[in-house]
Structures are given as C-alpha cells and as structure tokens.
Design goal:
Strand content: 5-15%
Number of strands: 4
Number of helices: 5
Structural class: alpha+beta
Largest sheet: 4 strands, mixed
Oligomer: single chain
Radius of gyration: 14 Å
C-alpha cells in the first residue's frame, strides 16, 4: 500500500471482500447505501493491497471465501466481521449485533454454507467491480 493510500484510508475501518463475487459486490453496494458518512472503506481480496493487509494480520492470502473487517488495527473474519460491521451502520442494523451471543461455531457454519455456495447461487465476474466516481475514494 502506498503512503497516499494509507493516508487516505487512515482511521477508517476497511472491509475486504471477494471482488468477483456478485453477492459480495452487492453486499458492498448495500453497505455503502447504509453508511452515509463513508466510514467504511473497501478493497478486493484479489488486490495487492488486500494481500498486504492480510499478511499484516497473519491471515491467508489464498482464501477468497472470507469476509474481513479491519477495525482499529484488529482483524475480524466471517460472521464476527459481518456483525461488527452491522453494528457500525445506521439504525436499525446495529440491532443485529445481538446475534454475537450465538456461539461462533454456529454463526460460522451458516456463514461457511453461504460462502461455499455464493458463486453457484449469485454468480461471479471475470474481473472486480469498478467503483463509480462518487464512491471511488472509498476503495483502496
């Protein structure tokens, strides 16, 4: 990540998603609509920036089936990442954070089922989504 990218995204939680997955692209757009202050910034798991961030967090750079939230220097994955992200969106989505009381192995079993089937259910692209000019500054 270049110094310019670091400065531009400093202090923002970063969401790493599979950039070619239609479900993940839709999720990114959904988050943007519910985050009017532009708190969350994004990078594709396929990008060099994401690989550097994953290495820094001691996470696999080969797996594209996880959702990663980097918040205040801490790395969250799978269902925990999704619930922490919901907590930071505008009302009523923070109410979903109550699901954190569900044991992680149950939450992640559901998460893993969706992750395993996302291409079959929602499709995929050959290349990552290109952000529109109005949201481009939220992408690493």
């Amino acid at each position: 990540m270049t110094a310019n990218q670091t400065d531009q995204h400093e202090g923002h939680p970063i969401v790493l998603v599979d950039g070619v997955c239609h479900f993940c692209q839709g999720l990114t757009k959904w988050i943007i609509k519910r985050d009017p202050e532009g708190k969350y910034h994004f990078a594709s798991l396929q990008s060099d920036v994401a690989k550097q961030l994953l290495e820094k967090g001691n996470l696999s750079t080969d797996s594209m089936d996880t959702f990663v939230l980097i918040e205040d220097g801490k790395y969250y994955t799978r269902s925990t990442a999704a619930l922490r992200l919901a907590k930071g969106l505008k009302f009523p989505y923070p109410l979903l954070y109550v699901l954190i009381i569900v044991p992680k192995f149950i939450r992640n079993a559901i998460y893993n089922m969706v992750a395993r089937n996302r291409y079959r259910w929602f499709g995929q692209d050959e290349v990552c989504m290109l952000p529109t000019p109005d949201i481009k500054d939220r992408f690493l």
